[in-house]
Amino acid sequence: MSELTKKSLTEIVNLIKKKEIKSEELTQSFIKNIQKDKKLNSFITKCSELALKKAKDFDKKPKLDNLLPGIPIAVKDLFCTSGTKTTAGSKMLENFIPNYESTITNNLWNEGAFLLGKLNCDEYAMGSSNETSYFGNVMNPIAENTVPGGSSGGSASALAADLTPTTIGTDTGGSIRQPASFTGIVGLKPTYGLCSRWGIVAFASSLDQAGPMTKTVEDCALMLEAMAGFDEKDSTSINKKKENYSKNLTDKIKGLKIGIPKEYRVEGMPKEIDKLWENGKKILKDSGAEIVDISLPNTKYALPAYYIVAPAEASSNLARYDGVKYGFRSSKGNNLTEMYENTRSEGFGDEVKRRILIGTYVLSSGYYDAYYLKAQKVRQLIKNDFDQAFKKVDTILTPSTPSSAFKIGEKKDDPISMYLNDIFTVPVNLAGIPAISIPAGHDSNKFPLGLQLIGKPLDEQKLLNIAFAAEKKINFKQTLNRWWEK
Amino acid sequence: MSIDKDKIKHISKLARISLDSKKTDTLAKDLSSIFKFIEQLNELNTDKIEPLSSILNEPLRCRGDVVNDGKIREKILKNSPQKNEEFFVVPKVIE
What we know:
The structure holds two protein chains of two kinds. Helices cover 36% and strands 12% of the residues of chain A. Chain A is α/β, with parallel strands linked by helices. In chain A, helix 8 (271-286) links the parallel strand 7 (257-261) and strand 8. Chain A is globular, with a radius of gyration of 21 Å. By secondary structure, chain B is mostly helical.
């Protein structure tokens, strides 16, 4: 394996800018690693030829003042890429080739990057272990038969295994932060509206948000800078000035107040995670921050409210898959309605069907008030909790997940225990605020564990700065035996 | 609340998803346990709480009602599972 692929994105960009390496050499090194992806199964589509052509074109006329000059990037297969298959991990879209490009990927390409491949994910981003993809389970590079988390599991695995220098995912209830935590990488869910949702296969529109997944906090700042920005094609896009997250990155966090919510100390949480959290507090205190105990009283209601809101929006968003305009169509059925019913029965997997049915039920006549309206009220309470907390503190520190990565199949047959994985990440999506997960240590199995920092709306810079300071002191080291290459 | 097989049949009809009887059984079991979990929310009194309808502080933008795209019929038809030169083709609707 080339040492080049182990480097951070920032290091690679600097090497390109100093003309010490060419984009072609860089792209070749990643392609070489991707050829051994079989056991990880992190790629759905490999774009090796296309990427090499783009790399050669770049080397002929290098534009070095961009943020991502000549950088190949593989992305979650939920972002529409013009001319390249976009499956959302579903049989329904197995052969779907968009004729348009998502705003987020377009922003990356405008900064000099190009597409290296499309990464596996849970079907329609519904899952926490990457076991719901039509294209098979993704394995975690840390150990065989271990899940990478989900839904951005392919993104997390590919990045941790050095198959792409950086990547992007989407986060509806933790789908960036939970896999980041399980694989020992950095993952950021931005403020709702900071990154355009246009051209991303929709799951739950009021919760979905794209964000960077990177090896370091510095890389994360660079990627967010390239991704963020106003987009008139997304009616929920926030119109504000672009920020220079990477240039303004600093580890000076003296005097900042960090809140510790007592409700996140949940029953049955492993001691190792408690220890990790304590250590996080100590590190930030040593960096000059002030630790403040806070309360987010409605935390325990976030997950049940999420399992009303997200499926409701999903059932509505996924109504478009009817076998008429694009995607899979069943050959069975004697009339239009039967064609719809068979198409959706054969085209969607079990988890997607489960969520469509929950959503259809909570929105159906006679049940709307009891479920959907109730959940929207609880969502308001969750948001109020954060608003109150942020009057006292700048940022909130919590563990990213209640456990480390688990074995394939361990939770597959118990939806509730699977859903509980997102207990620390879901409240943030309901409130539309930003949060970052950084690798912070290992458990006794040497599996990575993450800490989460939650910020005020549009306060990404402060989150990145605190994460940057913590990262330096934590000095997390990933050790992989590269079992999948053997 | 427990969700029985008849309810699953009704919802799956609304959602246009056909299910065999084995799937219907499994889903009735799954949804019953999920709704039991969801119904923790009933512990909370939300009588005086306004439902959150948008997490953005500003109202949604509307664009001008002008044609900004078009003449892409070919591109759009390209991904269709069944089509003729100009239209999507579906099973017969009118006898």
